[in-house]
Fold these 4 entries.
Entry 1:
Amino acid sequence: MNQRYDVVIVGGGMVGATIACALADSDLSIAVIEQQHPPAFSPEQPHDLRVSALSLASERILRHVGAWQGIESRRLCPYSRMRVWEASDKRGATEFDAARIGHPYLGNIVENRVIQLALLDRVREIQNVDLICPARITSIDYSPGASIVQLENGQEIVGRLLIAADGGRSRVRDAVGIGTHKWDYDQYALVASVKTGYEQQDITWQQFTPTGPLAFLPLSGSCASLVWYNTPNEVRRLMELPEARFMAELRDTFPSRLGPIPELLERGFFPLQRQHAQRYVAEGVALAGDAAHMIHPLAGQGVNIGLLDAAVLAEELLKAIAAGEPVESLQVLERYEGRRRRHNLVMMQTMDAFYRMFSNQVGPLKLVRNLGLGLAGRLPLAKDRVMRFAMGLEGDLPAMAQEL
């Protein structure tokens, strides 16, 4: 069985589903191919390990495509303050407060599954979008203007434009022959979902240590997500510890401002890698999200820049339709790449600089870091600019990310 579409999106995760939703009610016929449905959500379930800090720009995009209500009806945790320090959270620390720039909060911590579920709910409502899920891809035959995605059930999906939203190990990217620049950081992230002795908090914080940052992300209720960056060997050791010994080490390592941690709900880990596609587009194909770039999660910007990719790509495709241009043309797709590649590269290089600066324990540099963090706390205009950047309010914003 052969089905033809104007746009075939491989990957129905957060980025791919956002692209489909952003193209709702257009003249394009769209297929979204996703390997499996995410598990259903119930408010009694413990929080998932994988969460994202959604910026204000990301919230606006998700509101624009009609998915935010589905997130709010499930679970989220807004945060209004962010604190960063190294040696001491009393001296040499910087705290950012959304109230300073007239916003009620900086962003929201949301489970990735909740975001995907809300988006897929919306996808199913859209007349010009077919969700093909569950679906296992057996092969991808790239041909500009007529790429073929072969499914395990024998179905062939043909698309004028093929969009890769299938993650860091993108099969679409490989099929097209687009290479990547990549390297592994000598660091893993251990993530622990815990119960805390405090009620829901409105602050996220990060402490820099010689082996990597310690981060606190508030979740709804008296729950939190803790991120413990360390060397691969140390993270493996921590994962193998019995729960009681692991909790003892966690309590000894994390700062006292965390408060009591009565219960561990779940723990897991993942390696950290930087990866950037050598190009985002070719005739009849576009990469978005992790298929185009993977970034150090230090500032939690990975999902946010992926959603900006989705919004900009959809915006350029809609402009092309209005102008009578073929959406698969290289000229149209290069406009998307031109708007996103440099922005993403700057973000990646900034995160790299932070990683390398705070991984270096040379005495003079450490002193400069602490002086810098302390000084930043006394420069209100600089703090405001950093907040606006982190909230996605700076740069070439697509219309969907601007104030509604």
Entry 2:
Amino acid sequence: MDPFLVKAIQLILSLSFLIVLHELGHFIPAKLFGTRVEKFFLFFDVKFALFKKKIGDTVYGIGWLPLGGYVKISGMIDESMDKEQMAEPPKEWEFRSKPAWQRLIIMLGGVTVNLVLGFLIYMMIMFVWGTAYVGPDEMPEGFAVVDSFEEYGFQDGDRILEVDGKEFENSLDINKHLFMRGIQNITVLHQNGTEETISIPEEIGTQMFKEGIMQPFVPIMAPVLDSIQPDLAAETAGLKKGDKLISLNNVEIGYWHELAPVSMENKEKEVELVFERDGEIKSTMITPSEEGKLGFVKNYDFDIKRKQFGLAESISKGFDYGYWTLRDYVYQFKYVFTKKGATQLGGFGAIGGLFPDTWNWLGFWNTTALLSIILAFMNILPIPALDGGHVMFLLYEMVTGRKPNDKFMEVAQMVGFFLLIALVLYANGNDIYRALFD
């Protein structure tokens, strides 16, 4: 099956699963507190629905616009902007008639479900698949290090032994930890056999972001192609999985990290690529993209190990993994408010790109858990039209003893709704721009 379709199917399946459970997080406490739920929809039913059926007081359905889902709760100012209902006297089964603490639980239900679900999926992953890791013994060639990090004392061929005095199990995580975990020092084993503990400057993550150095450590590996990306330079040039690169534009390529500088120097220029296939030396002409990309995926030639866990340890490890996933996402969220970060925002195309291009249950569940935690965090932001906006106004009411008036709530809801629509359009516009011009 086409990789695009595989990613699209996984995206729709994952989001549908997460949206339905999120809305159940609102629906169940609403029903428990005797609040009427008028609609329960997967996707938005603007003008019409693909399917709908009324059971009791609630219409269940599937809309045609896949931008989310919703439950319409009686007596609540939401995106439906049902002013006629709000103009009538409050009924005992309406949201607005319930105590503030019950309304708060109803509004927090969706976020709570997404957060708990993300942690539970990670626990399941630990129990079923365990964790993959590559230690220093599996990387005898070590890492290639960018020039700016050599100034701190790192050398090509270094292997990571410890981070902040603790054994570092998965060497491939070092870039992520540098960017988001506030590392203070790294102990490495140089190729000459000596160990050295190197201090890391404060705010190294911000420095990496500003300089565009998101992978200061790159594994030293033979340049063998694992797969070819469709409709890019490598496919056009006729390259295949298993080809081993030899030179680009007459510059010898002995390891993967030596390719990027040469490719960047020759972006959008047609150059000769020499490679080996089945013991035979061949050559082809290839044109790196505007960003110096050639369109193939590396083949990792080191041993990737996997650690399995029992049920009790899976719960602990899964919780820990979920915590750090949430913390890392919150930490890097600050970059969204920078000029560079704003240009990197992505919509459904970027989200779909997180899924593997061949069906893989581990990859599917890993991405679904990540999206669940992201949805929880994004929904709790204090923006009107999001759950966090309703929670913000409810907390105000509980502290002051006064409800914001309905007119103010209507205006706030409308402003929040248009802000969200603008953000969705901008993020998906970035996807389209990258697809057309990157």
Entry 3:
Amino acid sequence: MLTNFSLRSRIFISMIFWVVIAFILIASVTVYQYSEQNRDYHADRMERKEEQIKQSIDLALQKTTFPVTTENLGLIFRDEIYEIALVQNINFNIYDLQGQLIKSSRPKFEIDSISTCLDAEVLNNLASSRNKRYVEQKSAAGYSYQASYTYIDDKRFKHVGILNLPYFEDNSFNDKELKEILLRLTGAYLLLMLLAIGLAYFISKYITRSLQTISDRLNQTDLTKRNEKIIVENPSEEIGKLITSYNEMIDELEISAAKLAKGEREQAWREMAKQVAHEIKNPLTPMRLSVQSFERKFDPNDPDITKKVSEFSKTLIQQIDTMSSIASAFSNFANMPAQQNETLNVVKIVKMAVDIFDENYIHFSSDEEEIIAKLDRTQLIRVVTNLVKNATQAIVNVEAPNVLVTVSKEGDFVKMTVEDNGVGISMESKDKVFEPKFTTKTSGMGLGLGMVKNIVETYKGTINFTTEPGKGTIFTVRFPIANAGANM
């Protein structure tokens, strides 16, 4: 259950829990101790009363003029029993050896409530007991009491009767005292509880302070930047080991990040070099073949030599232009766009970029007439044209092609979407869309979307897309809106 709480909460709750448990245990032990004490007190008191009554009975038997027999007990204690009961302040009964009531110190109107004949179980237990004494628990009128049974002996220690002493326990004083003690104990523990709550709060805060520092620093750990080490004054041994491990990990991460960054840069340049070499080889091959063919077929005396030279030149110029466009594309991709503090009406610029395309299936829509942002005009146009160009290439084989460009305001951002109903992007290609040199087309270098992403992120914007194969794709670009009061 406590696993859902923080460490600080668990420490706090645990301390309070043990204080409550301690109070319950002490209260239980106190009640048990009083109960045992009361039981021992009443047992001792009953034995003393019984012994005092027996001494009075023995004294009465010594003074009597009647023969000490079971039959004469009623005569011997006819008046004496009341005096003994008055002196000892307790009533008692005398039975014969068969359990028949002979005499009781109780008034006559109470004798009816006294058993006139003892149970055989009482007689057997009394006879079989080692100290010739038997105590049983009884109840009368809703009250429980103890009844002791012991033999009355003559001068020769011969049993002549049975003494029965009903003993009612009066626990009112002890119960009152117990309640007072429990009240005092409760008050003391309430004070202790308040102290424990305060102590638990500060102890849990102190214990978890270092852990919270470590937790915050772990949450801030970023592999893409330099991370600060944790410094805690006078940490405990366990926290110190954890801090040392974290700081060592940070050192190792920095070394690994540096090696990784270097390796990634080298790998990126190798991949870029391979891509450039591959793209340049494509036009070089037909150029080489054209030169070889022209060399074999060159005849200065050919009447059409001028026409053939012209065609040969056009072929070479076409391939050279292709190589130039390749170089320009890689140059544009490599050069990160610098931020320009040019305040633009994005709606106007995007519409102008869309109007460059003559296709009638390309549409522009915006509910706003003006949305101001600080962007570079040229870079924004490059973003729009690249996305629209991609959309047009995705709907080549669609019967009713449609490309919709929209601009709207979304909170503190200007939102631009380019939607097409083309072939969509497959699941395998989704994660590679913005990678340089990735393309699904048979021509091109796959640098367009990578360049768009670089431009958008340079201006602290975002770009993402949703797609459904066979139904189309929606690219969404968001740029921060300029501060209020900006002018075009």
Entry 4:
Amino acid sequence: MQSMTVVTGHVRTFYQLLFNTLLVSVINFTVWFAVTFWVYLETRSVFATGVISGIFLVLTASTGIWFGSLVDGHRKKTVLQGSALASLVLYGAAFAVHLSVPEQAWTDPADARLWAFVLLLMFGVIAGNIRTIALPTLVTLLIDADRRDRANGLVGTVSGTSFLVTSVISGVLVAFDGMFSVLVLALAVLALSLVHLTFVRIPEREPEHSGAARPGVDLRGTIRIIAGVPGLTALILFSTFNNFLGGVFMALADAYGLSLVSVQTWGLLWGVISTGFILGGLLVSRTGLGSSPVRLLLLLNVALWAIIVVFPIWASIIPMAVGMYVYMLLMPYAEATEQTILQRVVPYERQGRVFGLAQSAEQAASPLTAFLISPITQFVFIPFMSDGGAGADAIGSWFGTGPDRGMALVFILTGVIGVVATALALASRPYRALSRRVAEDAPATEPAAAPA
């Protein structure tokens, strides 16, 4: 197999940025996971942990467009340094609060000092999200157009590795001494990241603020750029709809898995399943995405939704584990494909804002569905499939009955909707228009080379 090639002289820069991003992502996600674990252990309040998740999702969805404007309006190295510095300052302030507040304050979920501490940490984590927008634009800057799909696969590998390592580190540190070691490690890693970035040279020009590259958020101009690419609006709406349906999985996966196996088995199994995301990213970096990324993206979605349809048919952890591993294996292909399409058709000076807008739209969809589907499942589908319910009477003899079968039915119906929606997208005019645009020889805009 061919290895990934990059713009001459920039391969080391790309790998250095990947390594730096891996370090920072691991520590930011460790802080997020750790504070969630710690707050529950201190307060025993499920409501408090739910609020933390809600804060993270709302902030992620609401800051994407602004972060995108920062990425487009400044040198990428400056943005990366600013992100790390902001997290470092916020974690430092949280550390000061942690040292000054008496222990008994942490046990009260209504204590303002607890939530001041949590908010400082969550804003520090969110500041790191700038990197998720900046990194695809750096792929455009540093990687030859015909190898960007492979580089996007490596980006996916870094993301998967971050999540896999995070759950282990955060649990061990919180068990050891609460949040103290977590914060010490976070401050040390972010300081190391800033020092490392000072020695990384990114070959880029100062952004030009004229014409299509006006400074600021400029939401209207960003929407105009998206609308100017045939089929691109439809792609973002399709991805948002997919995330809307994906909220079903977010809401029910843990409950369904825990209805089949013990919590210890489920935790271990999820760790194994997560390795599929890392392997998938590595495969993308080796195989690439082929010559028709738009078609590949939709075919991947057909496969992903088909998995959601098939594995719940049996009330067994084995088909779920196999299905979820294949799902995780394919996800990096889907994410890398979407990034490659946007890198291909969006002008470089606008990519940050477009990636940010897409992130905001897509991130807002999943929690909305998760919020809606939980009560619907609890009060409609679970009674429907319980003994005496209409569904149990109709299909219970072969499908099974009980709460887990109610959740399984929700999965299957969601998967069917996803397959039908993707099939319609494959037959649509916007799909054909975007496919033709992506197939054109020249990307929308290539980044200008930095002066020697």
